[in-house]
Amino acid sequence: MSVDPATSASSEPVIAPAPARREPPGGRGAWTAWGIGVTVYVLAVVHRTSLGVAGMDAAARFGINASALSTFSILQVLVYAGMQVPVGVLVDRHGPRRILSAGLVLLTVGQLGFALATSFTPALLARGVLGCGDAMTFVSVLRIGARWFPLFRNPFIAQLTGLVGTVGNLVSTMVLAQVLHSAGWTATFGTTALLGFGVLALVVLVLRETPDSAAREPLLVRRGARVPDAPVSVSAPASGRGSGSLLDQLRGAWREPGTRLGMWVHFTTAFPASSFLLLWGMPFLVSGQHLSRAVAGALLSLVIVASMGFAMLFGQVMSRRPGWRTPTVFGVVLGTGATWGAVLAWPQPGHVPMWLLLVLAVVLGSNGPASLIGLDYARPVNPPERIGTASGIVNMGGFIAAVLALFLIGLVLDLKTPGGGTDYTAGGFRAAFATLYLPMVLGLAQILRLRRRALTREREIIGATVPKARAAG
Prior knowledge:
Blueprint: H1 28-49, H2 55-62, H3 66-94, H4 96-116, H5 120-135, H6 138-148, H7 154-183, H8 185-206, H9 211-216, H10 246-255, H11 257-288, H12 293-320, H13 325-344, H14 354-364, H15 367-378, H16 387-416, H17 426-434, H18 437-462, H19 468-471
Helix pairs in contact: 1-4, 1-5, 1-6, 1-7, 1-8, 3-4, 3-5, 3-16, 4-5, 4-6, 4-8, 6-7, 6-16, 7-8, 7-12, 7-15, 10-16, 11-12, 11-13, 11-15, 11-16, 11-18, 12-14, 12-15, 13-14, 13-15, 13-17, 13-18, 15-16, 16-17
């Protein structure tokens, strides 16, 4: 078999093995720090997914069509994706507390602006600000987990973070959807925005980023007192922040094939559920399948509940059997493609049976937890001081795919909708959701291309401490 010299292992730069790390202690302090961080993430998910239950209301409020409606989510997700690498570098350099605080400020400003907007352009700008704040949350929580918990617990902590984050999805689908129709647009979005002030106080006053900072920082710094230096790394005698130039930080993370594989895993697995929950699930179920809002909301909630179950399952399995990572990813991608195929190929596109919609909801619930497996490819091959940067690169993948999917769905719906209005048809949704296969095929091809190289590199680094069978994927 011929070897492509552009992608062969021999063309890879020589990468020094990651330094050994001293394991963090875990315990009550770890759960407290993680709990504060994940509270910010839950609030961010509420803001992020609130448009998913208000899409039709937004179309009516701003007088826009499907493509313009997609632009809200596209801009929000595009900003989120574009910020992942800078945020990862900033978290490594300045620590998660500062980045979470900045994120909360931007989330609050963005959601408040969206609440008060009465025309398309200000609302669009508000969603962009919100996406910027949202981008600062998840990677920061991962960094807290990596600093407080032992390495073998990190896959479980990442999945648990995603699981708890789904509470924000549930708040959107079960609470905001009802409040929106009783209290109105401004009151609903304005109230959720103001929650940011309370969470910000919790982060600034209580959060400790590492066990070392918890041991030597007082709960409150007296006025005029010297603020402690950056927390010391639990795995290196240096300051614990990323060392070297920003370019070196990025180059080092990107050179690891595990980082790139993780990004493509996230790209391929996350976007079907993201595009469904962020915007197009409710219109598809209400306009395309002629379900009531209550039934459609229940199906969206089922996606989220199923996601919680898959998160617990994948977190436990990946912590114990890393070799199941790749089979799990392939199973989720192929299962999602097959289920969507059954829905789209149903002889009566506007009357897909409820049992098949239930299956679709459950299968989509596996997408988010499967995307977090991408972090498990990047984490073992990057040193602790580069975890934020590597996590940002991985987390960028699924949101780039979501932008592509949201754009394609909105574009096809406009082409298939007479007059360019919002009277979407079942046939239009069939054509629109068929575009999901484009990023799916692209992502699978990249996973197949990178898988062997990434796993070889991983065995080189951790093979001395992890049996070969466990390191395989």
